[in-house]
Amino acid sequence: MEPKSWPSADLRSAIRRGDRTVQSVVTDALGRIADANARLGAFITVDAERALERARMLDRSEDRSGALFGVPAALKDNICLRGMQTTAGSRILQGFVPPYSATTAERLEAAGAVIVGKTNCDEFAMGSSTEHSAFGPARNPWDTTRTPGGSSGGSAAAVAAGLVPLALGSDTGGSVRQPAALCGVVGGKPTYGLVSRYGLIAFASSLDQIGPLAGSVGDAAMLHDVIAGPDARDSTCANHSVPGATSKLDVAPAGLKIGVPRHLLERGVDAEVAAAFDAALATFSSIGVPAVTVELPNSAYAIAVYYLVATAEASSNLARYDGVRYGLRVPGSPVDEMYSRTRSAGFGAEVKRRLMLGTYALSAGYYEAFYLKAQKVRQLIRRDFDEAFAHVDAIVLPTSPTPAFRLGERLDDPLQMYLADVFTVGASLAGLPAVSLPCGLTAGRLPVGLQIIGRAWEDAAVYQLASAFERARR
Amino acid sequence: MALQLTPQDVARIAELARLDLEADEVPALARQLTTILEFAAQIQTVDADAAEPVRAGSAAWREDQIGPCLPREEVLEQAPDARKDAGLFRVPKVL
User: Which of A16, A109, A403, B50 fits a 20 to 30 Å CA distance from A397?
Assistant: First the structure.
């Protein structure tokens, strides 16, 4: 039986009318998770007691106006929630219970959501398959011999399987969009700076963004609006507001133009993904949104740039995991020995690989040739997008060159795994809003995702196009 | 740029990253890092002299005002070793 996501609209009205209690909904969610988690590995932590206590409190509350009142939700385990264990998918944070909540978690709760648990992810968000979690892999609900993608694979699997209607993930080079595509759900990465990173365990600070995962464009847009907005606690969070992702969902897209960088699709794209993508372009054409060819010449270097910049920033961000203040400490003396023993025992192979890469790219003698050069080429990649956006309102691509791959298939060749990000890293490097939504199934019943990338701050236009596509396909 | 990471290179980088590597981890890591860096080195062929390196975000200034902080006790609850009475983390000798 194929997985079905859990739409939030009927649920929210039933709760508001009093037809369902929050307790019954949360009990329902906890039951679904209990039935599925051994098979899917979607959750690292489930806190039933806390969720039910919150549900009881909400049922007693007179004000039921929150946008997400009573809705069960999940957080990727690199987003801090006060009082709930946070692992970032790693052994190095064992025992860590955050003394504070991320801004996005606070906003979910302020809107009335009930956070039931923390979802599985690649360690420190480094991966494209959720196989690099220290707690075992997550599996794709469409075929449990396959990965759900990563690094937000747990959140994507939870939403795809209908365990919760809504989840948050984080996206640095595609980690919300790619699992959304592989699991047949909607996943978005906001414009860089639109959503606060306060309380997100940092991987690459100039790239990381928290984004929504849901079963429909409307639900993802609603979740985006709940978490977006200025936050003084994150200095990279813009302090101006922009129109919400839900603001143009029902506005017809006629007159908008989309661009396709055909030169990026010449090789390496699975035939069924290419066919689904062409069918998607035909759908856009049928609703008055024609596609033109655009060029993004420097995007050919996007993966190389990404794996230099992101790993360099990670080597700096992960320096704090040293056994001093929280998490794992492996004894050693002097303190340097404690640092390296702790880090060696606590970090997995993929994290170590990326830390080494990043350290090398920043090291004396190599900084200019690698890190600095990568940041310059990144500027060229941004300019390509700006130039394309003079002619089109959005750029579309398949989200992933292949459908979900089998567990274990890419573990021996790290570079092969990195190439899975080829269509998603560009929007990350350029800080642009991007959404992945389902656009078909392969003959083997595996989901294919379509990616829509918009101009900076025009998240509303991206969701508008996504919504129109979803309507056309209904 | 011809790149071939030697075991000594790997050892040097590991030390900078404060990672201990087992002897049997080094050859595979040297190979994998070499492959990835060779792939990444293709950016050397790009003419990017006219481009400014990307600097994410803008320098946002604020007044240097004391505001609410995490309570010290709660933070020290997470410490592997602490002198809670003195409000200190405890570590092995530094020198």
Answer: B50
